Amino acid sequence: MPVNRNYLAIGLALVIAISLMGLTPPQKSEVAGHLQMALGATGQWIFSPVIRYASTAAKNRLVMAQNAELSLENMRFREAAWENRRLRAALGFKQEMVSSRIIPAEVISRDPDQLYDALVINVGRENGVREDMPVVVPEGLVGNVLQTEDRSSVVQLIMSARISAIVQEKRVQGVVTWGRGSLFRLNYVDVTSDIEKGDRVISSGLGGKFPKGLVIGDVIEVREQKRDPLFKEVFLESNVNFGKLEEVFVISAMN
Q1: What is the pTM of this model?
Q2: Which of 23, 107, 162, 176 is the most core-located residue (most Cβ within 10 A)?
Q3: Are both 138 and 177 inside the same structural domain?
Q4: Rounded to an integer, what distance in angstroms lies between the CA atom of residue 24 and that of residue 232?
Q5: Spatial distance between the Cα atoms of 76 and 58, rounded to a whole number of angstroms
Q6: 141 and 252 part of one domain
Q7: Given a cut of 90, is residue 83 above it in pLDDT?
Q8: Beta carbons within 10 angstroms of residue 146's beta carbon
Q9: In the chain, how many domains are there?
Q10: How far apart, in whole angstroms, are the C-alpha atoms of residue 185 and residue 234?
Q11: What's the CA gap between 86 and 138, in Å, rounded?
Q12: Residues 78, 80, 83, 89, Cα dihedral to 10°
């Protein structure tokens, strides 16, 4: 007949109790200490995986939070670095044009269907902006003010203009027209001119719309024309990124 487990447990407990009753107080204390250590070790053995898991999860959450914070800081630093470079370039541009009064402005809108036609800036008549004033960035000529309101203005980009120009190094004159993107063409260049790749093309001041000395672009290709042997084909590229303009400068006076 199988032994009832409950009776066995009760009997074992009675034996342990009777045995403990026969011990002296110092022995009872020693046995109690050993039992306490055994129970503590058992509890630690049972619950240590749970404790380790909770600790690891907390550490992972802390690391993820720190990584997110570092990522945000990195993005802030990158934007601050770009802003610093833009402002330093703008400051250098201002220093080069100490004889001019320039009005800083931000681009606030543009027509996506007319990317190379016009944009709107956040300065207007109240800021001293008037129609036909040239608009530039440190990289070169952007366009001219087409229309003004009290606190905003429409800027027509140079893609829509014909600009009287001169090659800065060679003093060869011509008229700049837009090709595509940031590419332009210098027209009516005499075949005997010694224009080379890398020469800088600036506004000549003729015609009155753009003052003399504003950078239009750099020559990237020169070739002979078969259809019109009297003139060379001269292509130049602007350093202005017209699709990503954020800040521009309106020149209200230039000596």
Answers
A1: 0.61
A2: 176
A3: yes
A4: 119
A5: 27
A6: yes
A7: no
A8: 16
A9: 2
A10: 6
A11: 9
A12: -90
